[in-house]
Amino acid sequence: MRVDEVTPNVDSAALLAGAQFVDAFRIATARPDLDARHAAEAMVARQPRWIEWLLALRNFIVAPLGLKTSGAADGATRDMIGIFPVVSETPERLVAGFNDKHLDFRLVVDVASAGAVRSITATTLVLTHNWFGRAYLAVILPFHRLIVPAMLRKAGR
Protein backbone atom coordinates (compact mmCIF):
# COMPACT_ATOMS: atom_id res chain seq x y z
CA MET A 1 0.00 0.00 0.00
CA ARG A 2 1.33 3.37 -0.98
CA VAL A 3 1.69 6.12 1.60
CA ASP A 4 2.18 9.68 0.36
CA GLU A 5 3.62 12.61 2.23
CA VAL A 6 1.12 15.44 1.79
CA THR A 7 0.81 19.10 2.70
CA PRO A 8 -0.74 19.26 6.18
CA ASN A 9 -4.35 20.43 6.07
CA VAL A 10 -5.01 21.27 9.71
CA ASP A 11 -5.45 24.41 11.78
CA SER A 12 -2.12 24.25 13.61
CA ALA A 13 -2.96 27.21 15.83
CA ALA A 14 -6.10 25.49 17.13
CA LEU A 15 -4.46 22.07 17.60
CA LEU A 16 -1.08 23.12 19.02
CA ALA A 17 -0.47 26.87 19.02
CA GLY A 18 3.08 27.78 18.06
CA ALA A 19 3.95 24.36 16.60
CA GLN A 20 7.31 24.58 14.82
CA PHE A 21 7.00 21.21 13.08
CA VAL A 22 4.02 19.87 11.15
CA ASP A 23 3.95 17.01 8.65
CA ALA A 24 1.31 14.70 7.21
CA PHE A 25 1.10 11.33 5.48
CA ARG A 26 -1.91 9.83 3.69
CA ILE A 27 -3.03 6.41 2.52
CA ALA A 28 -6.14 5.30 0.61
CA THR A 29 -8.24 2.35 1.75
CA ALA A 30 -11.40 0.62 0.57
CA ARG A 31 -12.59 -0.04 4.15
CA PRO A 32 -16.08 1.54 4.15
CA ASP A 33 -16.63 1.18 7.91
CA LEU A 34 -13.47 2.96 9.01
CA ASP A 35 -13.71 5.96 11.33
CA ALA A 36 -10.91 7.99 12.95
CA ARG A 37 -10.86 6.01 16.23
CA HIS A 38 -10.61 2.64 14.47
CA ALA A 39 -7.91 3.98 12.15
CA ALA A 40 -5.90 5.33 15.12
CA GLU A 41 -6.33 2.07 17.04
CA ALA A 42 -5.14 0.06 14.03
CA MET A 43 -2.13 2.36 13.66
CA VAL A 44 -0.86 1.82 17.21
CA ALA A 45 -1.92 -1.80 17.80
CA ARG A 46 0.71 -4.55 17.54
CA GLN A 47 3.64 -2.62 16.14
CA PRO A 48 6.24 -4.32 13.96
CA ARG A 49 9.15 -5.56 16.07
CA TRP A 50 11.52 -2.92 14.72
CA ILE A 51 9.19 -0.14 15.92
CA GLU A 52 8.74 -1.83 19.32
CA TRP A 53 12.53 -2.08 19.61
CA LEU A 54 13.03 1.61 18.72
CA LEU A 55 10.37 2.70 21.25
CA ALA A 56 11.89 0.51 23.96
CA LEU A 57 15.32 2.01 23.24
CA ARG A 58 13.85 5.53 23.30
CA ASN A 59 12.14 4.87 26.64
CA PHE A 60 15.32 3.41 28.12
CA ILE A 61 17.31 6.49 27.09
CA VAL A 62 14.81 9.21 28.09
CA ALA A 63 13.40 7.78 31.35
CA PRO A 64 16.48 8.80 33.41
CA LEU A 65 16.12 12.31 31.94
CA GLY A 66 12.63 12.61 33.40
CA LEU A 67 10.79 12.51 30.09
CA LYS A 68 7.44 10.79 29.78
CA THR A 69 7.32 7.34 28.22
CA SER A 70 3.53 7.51 27.97
CA GLY A 71 0.80 10.11 28.17
CA ALA A 72 -0.97 8.16 30.90
CA ALA A 73 -1.16 10.29 34.03
CA ASP A 74 -0.42 8.56 37.32
CA GLY A 75 -3.72 7.43 38.83
CA ALA A 76 -5.87 9.28 36.28
CA THR A 77 -8.33 7.47 34.06
CA ARG A 78 -8.05 8.80 30.52
CA ASP A 79 -9.23 7.71 27.13
CA MET A 80 -6.07 6.36 25.50
CA ILE A 81 -5.04 5.16 22.06
CA GLY A 82 -1.92 3.14 22.82
CA ILE A 83 0.34 5.43 24.86
CA PHE A 84 -1.43 8.57 23.62
CA PRO A 85 -4.22 10.32 25.55
CA VAL A 86 -7.16 11.32 23.34
CA VAL A 87 -7.51 15.12 23.28
CA SER A 88 -10.63 15.29 21.11
CA GLU A 89 -12.61 13.01 18.84
CA THR A 90 -15.25 12.97 16.13
CA PRO A 91 -15.94 10.13 13.68
CA GLU A 92 -13.82 11.96 11.09
CA ARG A 93 -10.95 13.16 13.34
CA LEU A 94 -9.13 11.94 16.41
CA VAL A 95 -6.56 14.15 18.11
CA ALA A 96 -4.17 12.53 20.58
CA GLY A 97 -0.98 13.63 22.26
CA PHE A 98 0.51 15.04 25.41
CA ASN A 99 2.77 17.75 26.75
CA ASP A 100 6.19 17.14 28.23
CA LYS A 101 8.92 19.40 29.54
CA HIS A 102 10.97 19.25 26.32
CA LEU A 103 8.14 19.34 23.77
CA ASP A 104 4.39 19.00 23.21
CA PHE A 105 3.02 16.95 20.36
CA ARG A 106 -0.27 16.03 18.74
CA LEU A 107 -1.15 13.20 16.39
CA VAL A 108 -4.19 13.96 14.26
CA VAL A 109 -5.87 11.08 12.43
CA ASP A 110 -8.38 12.20 9.79
CA VAL A 111 -10.61 9.86 7.79
CA ALA A 112 -12.42 11.22 4.72
CA SER A 113 -14.54 9.65 1.99
CA ALA A 114 -14.14 10.14 -1.74
CA GLY A 115 -16.61 7.79 -3.36
CA ALA A 116 -15.78 4.16 -2.57
CA VAL A 117 -12.32 5.14 -1.33
CA ARG A 118 -11.53 6.50 2.11
CA SER A 119 -8.34 8.34 2.90
CA ILE A 120 -6.55 8.22 6.23
CA THR A 121 -4.27 11.15 6.99
CA ALA A 122 -1.90 11.19 9.96
CA THR A 123 -0.67 14.67 10.84
CA THR A 124 1.99 15.27 13.49
CA LEU A 125 2.48 18.62 15.21
CA VAL A 126 5.36 19.42 17.57
CA LEU A 127 6.06 22.44 19.76
CA THR A 128 9.53 22.40 21.30
CA HIS A 129 10.19 24.20 24.59
CA ASN A 130 13.98 24.28 24.83
CA TRP A 131 17.26 23.22 23.24
CA PHE A 132 16.71 19.64 24.42
CA GLY A 133 13.34 19.49 22.66
CA ARG A 134 14.88 20.79 19.44
CA ALA A 135 17.74 18.27 19.68
CA TYR A 136 15.31 15.44 20.49
CA LEU A 137 13.17 16.34 17.46
CA ALA A 138 16.22 16.42 15.19
CA VAL A 139 17.31 12.94 16.36
CA ILE A 140 13.84 11.38 16.20
CA LEU A 141 12.73 12.88 12.85
CA PRO A 142 14.36 10.31 10.51
CA PHE A 143 12.69 7.51 12.51
CA HIS A 144 9.37 9.39 12.54
CA ARG A 145 9.41 9.50 8.73
CA LEU A 146 9.69 5.68 8.69
CA ILE A 147 7.33 4.89 11.57
CA VAL A 148 4.28 6.97 10.58
CA PRO A 149 3.96 5.46 7.07
CA ALA A 150 4.40 1.95 8.56
CA MET A 151 1.63 2.69 11.05
CA LEU A 152 -0.65 4.06 8.31
CA ARG A 153 -0.20 0.91 6.21
CA LYS A 154 -1.62 -1.10 9.12
CA ALA A 155 -4.69 1.12 9.29
CA GLY A 156 -5.28 0.88 5.55
CA ARG A 157 -5.49 -2.94 5.51
Automatic annotation (TrEMBL):
<dbReference type="Pfam" id="PF11066">
    <property type="entry name" value="DUF2867"/>
</dbReference>
<dbReference type="InterPro" id="IPR021295">
    <property type="entry name" value="DUF2867"/>
</dbReference>
<protein>
    <submittedName>
        <fullName>DUF2867 domain-containing protein</fullName>
    </submittedName>
</protein>
